[in-house]
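stuck on this one:
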Amino acid sequence: IDRIIDVFNEFSCRILDKNNILHRLYPNSGLAFIANWCRRANLEALLDTSLGDRYCLDKFVQSKKRISRAYKAFPVGVVVHWLAGNVPTLGFLSLIQGVLTKNANIIKLPSGSNNMLVSLLEQISEINIKNYCASELVKTVAIIRHDHSLKNINDAISLNANARVMWGNDNSVSAVKALPTKLNVNDIVFSNKTSLIVIGRDILENVDVSELAGKIATDISVF
């Protein structure tokens, strides 16, 4: 797990570089958010909070609550991520978690989406740290895009999923949930939701309001 985290941390550094070509190819796409989210400190905290000890992804670790017990986290197998056309940035975050937990991952892109996720994976594949080539990590990810009328492809993808992560509005998520599945599939759903933004009074008094409104508009459009 440390090597996987090293890869994402290096990926973070590359994306934070303003000279990276991706900033010109995909402006206002939340790349800085992705980069900061992939920092080592954030990923370690995410895994330790979720699993108790991130090294349970590698081996049995001693339980902190019961001395006589040890535990280990095992991959579920194939995780399929159905991404929403308007928030590919967020879908990439669920992909990272699928890779961190050592699952095979399939990304189902909307037919009209751009190639941002492909470009991000290409950036990861170029990383080589301590003789660990990230291209091997990228080989565990497949990206699929097809005409939405080809229902048999969606059926096949769903039937091979051990877990399904669904992003989108209520109608699109309902359509995915209705696809045939294994009996023990795990579904994680991110459908319609309402977001809230809070702006402190001190911020309003000390910044240009039009600049602040621009940042809020960018956040809304990206996420």
